[in-house]
Design goal:
Strand order of the largest sheet: 1-3-2-4-5-14-13-10-7-8
CATH topology of the largest domain: Rossmann fold
Radius of gyration: 25 Å
Largest sheet: 10 strands, mixed
Structural class: mainly beta
CATH class of the largest domain: Alpha Beta
Number of domains: 2
Number of strands: 29
Strand content: 35-45%
Oligomer: single chain
């Protein structure tokens, strides 16, 4: 089987159409050339890949050549493709020359997309698993497959929401996973290795991206048959992932204000580039890839990164947080003390406390447990979570991923009604926390 599918629907990014005679318009951006390699055992490689390729090209920006002939991986052929995409179930059928050509192709900056059984293929080629970032030797039984999206605002997963459920597919069990790879979607449940009759240690990565040399790798573990391959959300995911691997997918917008937010009076507290406006210990705080990152180990006491430009009384504060481990939170209406100590209200972003309201350093402790029966149902503990704090007079409301987790009325008139915003690093074991999209709307009294 060897044939070609060519898209007639191109994504004309930046194309401006101007009537003839008025002037020239911008050149059309050429579609991404993709070589889609299929074939092997246990799957329908006669019709399903063609259907997937056609659905993908209909989304635009792609030309897809579909082949089951592995000689098409010869160096002289693959050099004209921006992306190599595999959905194969072969044990060992790529010759040494083609293997080297694939590695050099990706290292030089081209894209690689690996789908489903490709993670099981070529087990005698260690660099294949290294390039993909993982190896699959088995899977749990095929069934409805609930999945958790760890970063719903990533450019690849935009529109997927926080949860995705496939009608009927195989949960792949991924071994030798590369810790440098970025997981975008994982299994919601913990699965069982039926070959070993053993429960796995945690949820399985199912969609991820990684860098290999100068190239981008995009991996999707599911896609056993047309029940998934024709699903619109799957098509969107694959279309975005292919364009991402080709470096043609615009990055998601973070640390900016929308037109409506500007109109509503929101202020951006973190510019995504540096720590301008913030004060803390420089060895603990940095900016990486547009994220405000805090790391700590062996702290004598909790320390904070404080916003110094302004104090706030009544407001709506929005931010996204990703806790790598341990305990963090966002202070508001708080007071600054020496040695980067801050005391006052805190919205918890902490293991088993997400969404709670705490009074840091005052002796009052937990004011509202927002985790039990509330935050525990919506938090993504290993992913990005959106939080909103609304403080108006004596009324405080905290939302976690859209759910109200804490409502509190302050009865003590001695508690400050205005103060600083600050981010916490907690004493105890080594920890890391990340923040982005920190923005506030002051409210008139």
């Amino acid at each position: 089987m060897k044939y070609k599918i060519i898209s007639k629907l191109y994504l004309l990014a930046g194309l401006t159409i101007i009537p003839a005679g008025i002037g020239c318009y911008q050149p059309v951006i050429k579609p991404i050339n993709v070589l889609f390699v299929v074939g092997g055992q246990h799957h329908d490689y006669d019709s399903e890949p063609a259907t997937l390729a056609q659905r993908l090209t209909e989304r635009g920006d792609l030309n897809i050549d579909l082949t089951a002939d592995l000689t098409d991986l010869h160096p002289s052929n693959i050099e004209r493709y921006q992306v190599l995409m595999f959905n194969t179930c072969h044990e060992d059928r790529i010759d040494d020359e083609s293997r080297q050509a694939i590695l050099e192709h990706v290292r030089a900056g081209k894209g690689l997309v690996a789908l489903h059984c490709s993670l099981w293929s070529y087990q005698d080629w260690p660099q294949w698993a290294e390039m993909l970032g993982g190896l699959v030797l088995s899977h749990d039984k095929r069934a409805p497959l609930p999945l958790t999206v760890l970063d719903p605002s990533h450019e690849i997963t935009l529109g997927q929401g926080r949860h995705l459920e496939l009608k009927y597919d195989e949960p792949y069990l991924v071994d030798n996973f590369d810790p440098e790879a970025e997981v975008l979607i994982r299994t919601t449940q913990i699965h069982t290795d039926r070959q070993k009759n053993q429960r796995r240690s945690g949820p399985e990565p199912q969609v991820w991206i990684k860098q290999y040399g100068a190239g981008r790798v995009f991996v999707v573990t599911f896609g056993h048959d047309n029940q998934t391959l024709t699903d619109e959300r799957f098509i969107s995911l694959m279309h975005n992932g292919i364009r991402f691997s080709a470096k043609r997918l615009p990055p998601a917008s973070h640390n900016t204000l929308t037109l409506s937010e500007k109109k509503d009076g929101y202020e951006l507290l973190f510019n995504g580039k540096d720590l301008t406006g913030w004060s803390g210990t420089p060895e603990n705080w940095s900016v990486e890839n547009g994220e405000l990152v805090g790391r700590a180990a062996d702290l004598k006491h909790n320390i904070f990164l404080s916003y110094t430009r302004k104090q706030y009384a009544d407001f709506i504060l929005r931010f996204s947080a990703k806790l790598i481990n341990h305990n963090s939170g966002v202070q508001f209406r708080s007071r600054q003390f020496p040695e980067h100590v801050v005391k006052g209200y805190q919205a918890d972003a902490a293991d088993k406390w997400w969404g709670s309201l705490y009074d840091e350093g005052t002796g009052r402790g937990v004011l509202v447990n927002g985790f039990k029966d509330k935050g525990e149902h919506v938090v993504i503990p290993d992913g990005w979570n959106q939080m909103t704090i609304k403080a108006v007079g004596t009324q405080i409301t905290i939302r976690l991923n859209g759910l109200i987790t804490a409502k509190y009325e302050e009865k003590d008139p001695s508690i400050p009604t205005s103060g600083i915003i600050a981010l916490q690093l907690h004493r105890g074991p080594p920890m890391e926390v990340r923040f982005r999209d920190i923005k506030i709307r002051p409210l008139e009294k």
